[in-house]
Design goal:
globular, mainly alpha, 21 helices, single chain
């Protein structure tokens, strides 16, 4: 039996620096895209559906990238690093073009391209930790990623405010994005590329033969979710059932003239998955079995038990985060600053405050990243995650009761930052110990489904919930998100963790 050796702190740092750039770009996207959409004429009710590009891209790209990165090996470039580099190059170019979009639909298209590029780089980074670190170092490895994620996002989120402080124009004529946002995106493109390039040049990877030898240390884990098409007989019935449900839901939405956003749920999630399973079933029935597509669909049905349990925790965690990312600008500028006029100085002050708040919770996440492994070691990873998510949920709810000032900028973000740091590390540390080594990249990509699906549900349901129950006031989306995050914390106790 060959045990995977422990790596030095320097090696773990080198592996994680790329996430500084990835989250630099991701934070600029999260903190400013809704602002760009509103500037280009989007109504508040339409913002969620415009955001659909981001999670839909992740849903498609991440498992594909994971699948192919599992099967990639180059003597010089390794297994995951080629994807780091290609994604970084494309994302950097997208960051340069995004704030110069001339219309709303061009901006929506650029969001799609930007998010796809970020996903190409980001997905293999999760598997990178699982590949290179033994189980006892993975909590530290993912925590180090959380640190660089927090640090990169903190700086990126404050860039518009910093430029505003130095006299760069924070307002612009109708339909134009302010220079503070443009210059922030330009810097983001440079930082993204250089950070990922650093990890590519300073990190090494184990060969497929070495990974297989390390995988022998845990035959029970290796056997989960691997093998032949054991669930292929379920492809057709699952596909037909999901298509029927999706069609029925779509008819219900049409007949009752409900919000068009709900079609994301009926077509974008249920019908899409139904179609994929139907295609896989037809291929198997036709004798076309030995291909990547049918293997991907089979592995989805045979995922390890721990992964299924974590899916519920992830769903409610990311539903809450997406509610905040979509509606923070609209909620705070309307509820606290009292305006919806995107050309006004007070609106752009409020928008800068939101960007700063996003920076603040990422700073907290970077700091807390060093303490989460300690709390997890003294209690358990599940309790540490429960505590973090509960604090995050209370932080989101507290925004409703606050006014302008430092209290708004920091108090809710302390709780959210603790939750964010844990979300970025603990579930992946638990999951990586339950995955077969030869499918680490693929299953990390599939795990992204439970990040993407709640985002699509949020994009489809939140607008409907706000207009139906809360008279369209976006502040209530943050309260719904807070409750969702607390529920995710409670569900953590039902997860099986090998460390226990």
């Amino acid at each position: 039996m060959i045990t995977k050796p422990k790596l030095s702190i320097t090696s773990i740092v080198n592996m994680s620096v790329g996430f500084f750039g990835i989250q630099f770009g991701f934070a600029l996207q999260n903190g400013n895209v809704s602002r760009i959409f509103q500037t280009l004429g989007a109504a508040i009710d339409d913002i969620p559906i415009l955001w659909v590009a981001a999670p839909m891209t992740g849903l498609i790209v991440q498992p594909i990238i994971g699948y192919f990165s599992d099967r990639t090996w180059h003597q010089k470039w390794g297994r995951r690093r080629p994807f780091f580099f290609i994604g970084a190059l494309l994302a950097s170019l997208a960051l340069l073009f995004m704030p110069n979009s001339s219309s709303l639909w061009i901006a929506a298209g650029m969001l799609w391209i930007l998010d796809a590029s970020i996903n190409i780089s980001m997905e293999p980074f999760r598997a990178f930790v699982g590949d290179n670190l033994p189980n006892e170092q993975r909590t530290v490895g993912f925590a180090m990623q959380s640190f660089f994620i927090g640090a990169g996002a903190y700086i990126a989120s404050w860039l518009p405010t910093i430029f505003d402080h130095f006299g760069v124009a924070n307002t612009a004529s109708e339909g134009m994005v302010p220079d503070t946002v443009k210059y922030s995106f330009y810097i983001g493109g440079i930082v993204f590329f250089l950070s990922v390039l650093y990890t590519v040049l300073t990190s090494k990877e184990y060969s497929p033969e070495e990974l297989r030898s390390f995988g022998q240390e845990d035959e029970a884990v290796h056997s989960q979710g691997s093998g032949s098409l054991t669930k292929s007989n379920l492809f057709l019935p699952i596909g037909i059932l999901m298509l029927l449900v999706g069609m029925a839901l779509s008819i219900l939405i049409y007949n009752n003239d409900l919000k068009k956003d709900l079609y994301i749920l009926s077509f974008g999630i249920i019908s899409l998955f139904g179609l994929l399973f139907l295609i896989a079933g037809i291929l198997v029935k036709s004798g076309v079995k030995n291909n990547g597509f049918t293997n991907i669909m089979n592995d989805f049905l045979t995922m390890p038990k721990t992964m299924k349990q974590l899916a519920f925790v992830q769903f409610f965690s990311w539903f809450a985060l997406f509610a905040f990312w979509i509606y923070a600008t609209a909620a705070i500028t309307q509820h606290i600053y009292g305006t919806t006029d995107t050309q006004s100085e007070i609106f752009n002050q409020g928008a800068n405050t939101v960007s700063g708040m996003m920076g603040n919770y990422n700073l907290i996440a970077a700091i807390v990243a060093f303490f989460i492994p300690v709390v997890a070691a003294k209690t358990s990873r599940k309790f540490a995650h429960f505590l973090a998510l509960t604090l995050g949920g209370l932080g989101l709810i507290s925004i409703y009761f606050l006014g302008q000032g430092l209290t708004l900028q920091w108090l809710p973000m302390i709780g959210l930052g603790i939750a964010w740091s844990s979300i970025l590390s603990v579930p992946y540390a638990i999951l990586s110990g339950a995955l077969p080594a030869e499918k680490m990249g693929y299953y990390m990509g599939v795990f992204n489904f439970f990040i993407v699906i709640p985002q699509l549900v949020a994009a489809s349901l939140l607008g409907f919930i706000l207009t139906t129950f809360f008279d369209g006031h976006p502040i209530y989306a943050l309260i719904v998100g807070g409750v969702s995050m607390i529920l995710a914390g409670i569900l953590t106790f039902f997860v099986s963790d090998r460390q226990d």
